[in-house]
Design a protein that fits this description.
0% strand; mainly alpha
């Protein structure tokens, strides 16, 4: 982020010294491989850093803490916002194993538990609690 802020500051200085038409020509001539959107993002990063510095009573642009850097880069569009890593359940390309793994873990726990201590020997309270917690599975089963 510090480099983006520094580059953005230099770009802002250069832009201030040129007219709009000559700014566009300067970009084309000096930065042909850099997308105009990227230049705009760097300049926004410099403006943001200067604004934070001004808020803190300083005239020197400041570096944002790492956690804020990523958020600032996302907000400025320099890096994309993280996509939802949880894919749609309706995607036919994925197996359902990933979605029933927790049920399988419970099944293994339950089988071990009743092997060690059969349900008939459980106190009423744990049986009632487990029955209430499993009600949604029975309802899901009926819907399927």
């Amino acid at each position: 982020m510090a480099k983006a802020v520094e580059c953005g500051g230099l770009l802002l200085e250069q832009k201030a010294s040129l007219t709009d038409a000559s700014w566009t020509e300067w970009i084309t001539r000096n930065l042909p491989d850099v997308a105009p959107d990227t230049l705009s993002r760097y300049m926004r990063a410099a403006k943001l850093s200067a604004l934070v510095a001004q808020t803190n009573g300083s005239t020197t642009p400041v570096a944002l803490p790492d956690a804020q850097n990523k958020q600032a880069l996302i907000a400025l569009g320099i890096i994309p916002s993280p996509e939802n890593k949880r894919p749609s359940l309706l995607d036919p390309q994925r197996g359902w194993v990933r979605y029933v793994r927790f049920i399988d873990g419970f099944r293994k726990w339950f089988n071990q538990r009743i092997e060690d201590e059969p349900i008939e020997t459980w106190d009423e309270q744990p049986r009632r609690l487990l029955k209430n917690e499993l009600r949604w599975i029975a309802e899901l089963y009926q819907r399927l």
